C-alpha cells in the first residue's frame, strides 16, 4: 500500500466530527494503522483511496467518534447477568411482585444465596413506597439466604442472610466501609430489621471467578458498552481477578473498548498497592487499550442510604438513622496524601463525593494541598454537578482545580426523590447542566453503572436524552430551564469526556492523528424529535479502525 493511501475510508452524508467550528455534512474519515489520517469533504476522499483500500460508503447514516463513559463499574454490572435476579422497577411494580419474582427463581440460588437486583431508591419506586421487610423475604425462604440490593448502598436481608453475615442483636458495625458508614437498622427491641446500609462489601455474597468471570466481562463489555457505541470506559475496579481477566480478553482481541482503570482504594487494593501497581499487576495489553489510569476513593455514601454528606439534615429519621447529615469518611490529611501519592505515581485521583458538604470538604482539602502538579490530570470529584443547591460552590471547585463528573442518567434515576430525603432543600440545583456549561465547565456524561442501575444506563443516547428532556422516573420535568443543546450533549459524551481523562488529544473527536474510534448510527440524531433519541441505534463500531460491532439487520 503506497504512502498516503488509507486502509479504510468511511464515507457518509453526515460526518459529526465533534471538532470546534467545523460544519457537519457529507464527508469521509480515512484510517491507517488504527489512526485517523484525514477527514474532509466527501469529494476529497479519493486522494486517500488506493488498490488495497476498503471503501465503506454508509450513505445517509451518520458517522461520529466513539462515546466515552468516564465513570462505570463495568465488572460489577457484568456480574449481575450471572449472580442476580432482576427485581427492578418498573419490571416489579410492588413488594408483592418482588416476592413473586424471588420465589420463581429460588432454584437459581448460588452458594446458598439468592440476590435480587433492585433499583436505587427502590422504596420510592415501588407502589408500596417501602422496601420489602425481613419477614416478607422469610416468606420466600428461610433456608436460602436472600439479599435484595437496592443499588450499591442499601440491602435488605432475610433471616438466613443475616445469620450467614453474622448480624444479630449483638452485632456492632465497623467504623468504616469502602462506600460509607456501615449501618444496621434495628427495631425498638434492638433486633436487626434486615436493612443494612453501606455494607455490601462486608456481606458474604457469592463471587464469580475463573472462566465464568472471564465470560461475564466479555459479555458485559459487548452488550452494555460496545453495542451502544462506547469505545472508552473509565472503569472503577472491582477485583484484581477481574483486571487480569480484562487483560487476557484484550490480548485475545475479545474486548471492543479501551479501558482506563481507576483502582478502588481500599475497595480493591490499598492506596500503597494502587500507587505501586506496576510492581505486581503486570498487565500485558498495550496501554492504548488497557491501562491503570487513576485511583478512586469514597468520601461519603449515597443518598438512597441517607449517607451522602449534606449541609441540611435528612427529613426522615427512618432514612437517616443516627447520622442525620451523613458523614465525610476522608480527612483533609487523607485527601492531601492521596493527591500527593497518586501524582507521584502519574495517576489521576477521583473522589466520590455525593453530598454538597462532602464536595466542599474534598475541594477545600485539594486546594489546601496545592492541587495536582503539572503533568498530572486534574483531580476529579465524582457526582459534583448532580445536586448543587448553592451555585456559589463552583468557586471552590475552581479554586481547587477539580473536574466535576456528574451523571445525567441520575436525573431520571432519582431526580424525583431529593425532596423526599432533604425536603425543600432537595429541590434546589438538581442537575444544573445549563448553568455549568455557561460557567465554562466542560462537564461530561457517564453511566456510573452498578448493581441497581436503570436498564438503559450504559446507552449514551439515554444519558443524552436525560440532558435534553429532563424527565424523571415518575414523569416530572425537572427545571426545564437547565436543558442543553444536542451538540453540547454529544460533546459531553465524546470530546469533553476524553479531556476529563486527560486524553483529549487521543480520541473523542474525528481528527487526523487520533485513534480511529468511530461509530455509525442508524439515523441522524439532529433530525430526531427528542424522545426519538432513545431509539437511535448504533449500527457499526470501530476501535482503532477494527470493526468490533455490527448490529444485526432489522427484520
Quick structural overview:
Helices cover 28% and strands 20% of the residues. The protein contains 19 helices and 21 strands. Helix 1 (74-83) crosses helix 6, helix 11 packs across helix 12 (356-368) and helix 12 (356-368) packs parallel to helix 13.
Which keywords apply here?
6-stranded mixed sheet, 21 strands, alpha/beta, 555 residues, 7-stranded parallel sheet, Metal_Hydrolase
Provide an overview of this structure.
It comes from Streptomyces cellulosae. With 555 residues, this protein is of the alpha/beta class. The protein has helices spanning 74-83, 95-104, 122-125, 134-140, 159-165, 210-225, 240-251, 271-275, 277-280, 317-320, 332-344, 356-368, 393-400, 409-414, 418-422, 433-438, 460-469, 486-492, 495-500, and strands at 8-15, 25-32, 35-41, 54-57, 63-65, 67-72, 85-86, 113-118, 145-150, 154-157, 183-186, 192-197, 230-236, 258-264, 290-298, 348-352, 380-382, 403-405, 518-521, 538-543, 546-550. Strands 6-13-14-15-16-17-18 form a seven-stranded parallel beta sheet. α1 packs across α6 (210-225), α2 (95-104) packs parallel to α4 and α6 crosses α7 (240-251). The chain is globular, with a radius of gyration of 23 Å. The relative contact order is 0.14. The mean pLDDT is 94.
Break the fold down into its secondary structure elements and pairings.
Elements: E1 8-15, E2 25-32, E3 35-41, E4 54-57, E5 63-65, E6 67-72, H1 74-83, E7 85-86, H2 95-104, E8 113-118, H3 122-125, H4 134-140, E9 145-150, E10 154-157, H5 159-165, E11 183-186, E12 192-197, H6 210-225, E13 230-236, H7 240-251, E14 258-264, H8 271-275, H9 277-280, E15 290-298, H10 317-320, H11 332-344, E16 348-352, H12 356-368, E17 380-382, H13 393-400, E18 403-405, H14 409-414, H15 418-422, H16 433-438, H17 460-469, H18 486-492, H19 495-500, E19 518-521, E20 538-543, E21 546-550
Parallel strand pairs: 1-4, 6-13, 7-8, 8-9, 13-14, 14-15, 15-16, 16-17, 17-18
Antiparallel strand pairs: 1-2, 2-3, 5-19, 9-10, 10-12, 11-12, 19-20, 20-21
Amino acid at each position: 500500500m503506497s504512502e498516503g493511501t488509507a486502509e479504510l475510508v468511511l464515507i457518509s452524508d453526515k460526518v459529526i466530527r465533534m471538532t470546534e467550528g467545523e460544519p457537519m455534512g457529507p464527508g469521509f474519515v480515512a484510517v491507517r494503522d488504527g489512526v485517523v489520517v484525514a477527514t474532509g469533504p466527501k469529494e476529497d476522499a479519493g486522494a486517500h483511496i488506493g488498490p488495497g483500500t476498503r471503501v465503506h460508503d454508509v450513505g445517509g447514516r451518520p458517522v461520529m467518534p466513539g462515546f466515552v463513559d468516564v465513570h462505570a463499574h463495568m465488572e460489577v454490572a457484568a456480574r449481575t447477568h450471572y449472580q442476580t435476579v432482576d427485581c427492578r422497577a418498573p419490571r416489579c411494580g410492588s413488594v408483592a411482585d418482588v416476592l413473586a419474582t424471588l420465589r420463581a427463581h429460588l432454584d437459581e440460588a448460588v452458594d446458598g444465596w439468592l440476590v435480587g437486583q433492585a433499583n436505587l431508591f427502590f422504596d420510592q419506586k415501588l407502589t408500596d413506597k417501602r422496601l420489602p421487610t425481613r419477614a416478607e423475604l422469610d416468606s420466600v425462604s428461610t433456608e436460602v439466604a436472600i439479599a435484595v440490593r437496592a443499588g450499591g448502598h442499601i440491602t435488605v436481608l432475610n433471616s438466613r442472610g443475616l445469620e450467614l453475615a453474622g448480624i444479630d442483636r449483638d452485632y456492632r458495625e465497623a467504623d468504616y466501609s469502602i462506600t460509607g458508614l456501615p449501618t444496621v437498622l434495628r427495631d425498638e427491641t434492638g433486633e436487626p430489621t434486615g436493612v443494612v446500609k453501606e455494607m455490601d462489601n462486608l456481606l458474604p455474597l457469592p463471587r464469580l471467578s475463573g472462566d465464568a468471570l472471564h465470560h461475564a466481562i466479555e459479555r458485559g463489555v459487548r452488550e452494555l458498552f460496545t453495542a451502544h457505541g462506547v469505545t472508552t470506559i473509565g472503569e472503577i475496579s472491582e477485583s484484581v481477578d477481574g483486571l487480569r481477566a480484562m487483560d487476557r480478553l484484550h490480548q485475545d482481541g475479545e474486548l471492543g473498548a479501551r479501558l482506563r482503570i481507576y483502582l478502588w482504594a481500599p475497595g480493591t487494593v490499598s492506596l500503597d498497592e494502587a500507587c505501586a501497581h506496576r510492581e505486581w499487576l503486570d498487565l500485558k495489553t498495550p496501554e492504548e487499550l488497557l491501562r491503570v489510569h487513576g485511583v478512586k476513593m469514597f468520601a461519603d455514601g449515597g443518598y438512597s442510604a441517607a449517607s451522602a454528606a449534606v449541609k441540611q439534615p435528612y427529613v426522615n429519621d427512618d432514612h437517616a438513622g443516627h447520622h442525620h447529615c451523613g458523614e465525610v469518611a476522608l480527612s483533609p490529611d487523607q485527601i492531601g496524601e492521596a493527591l500527593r501519592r497518586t501524582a507521584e505515581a502519574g495517576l489521576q485521583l477521583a473522589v466520590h463525593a455525593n453530598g454538597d458538604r462532602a464536595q466542599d470538604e474534598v475541594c477545600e482539602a485539594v486546594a489546601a494541598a496545592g492541587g495536582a502538579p503539572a503533568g498530572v490530570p486534574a483531580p476529579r470529584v465524582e457526582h459534583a454537578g448532580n445536586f448543587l443547591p448553592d451555585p456559589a460552590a463552583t468557586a471552590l471547585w475552581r479554586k481547587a482545580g477539580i473536574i466535576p463528573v456528574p451523571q445525567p442518567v441520575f436525573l431520571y434515576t432519582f431526580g424525583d426523590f431529593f425532596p423526599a430525603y432533604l425536603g425543600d432543600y432537595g429541590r434546589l440545583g438538581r442537575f444544573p447542566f445549563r448553568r455549568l456549561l455557561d460557567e465554562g465547565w466542560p462537564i461530561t456524561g457517564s453511566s456510573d453503572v452498578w448493581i441497581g442501575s436503570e436498564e438503559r444506563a450504559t446507552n449514551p443516547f439515554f444519558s443524552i436524552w436525560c440532558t435534553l428532556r429532563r424527565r424523571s422516573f415518575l414523569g416530572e420535568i425537572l427545571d426545564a430551564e437547565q436543558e442543553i443543546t444536542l451538540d453540547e450533549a454529544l460533546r459531553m459524551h465524546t470530546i469533553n469526556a476524553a479531556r476529563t481523562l486527560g486524553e483529549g488529544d487521543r480520541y473523542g473527536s474525528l481528527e487526523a492523528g487520533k485513534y480511529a474510534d468511530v461509530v455509525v448510527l442508524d439515523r441522524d440524531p439532529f433530525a430526531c424529535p427528542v424522545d426519538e433519541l432513545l431509539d437511535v441505534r448504533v449500527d457499526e463500531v470501530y476501535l482503532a479502525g477494527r470493526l468490533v460491532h455490527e448490529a444485526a439487520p432489522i427484520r
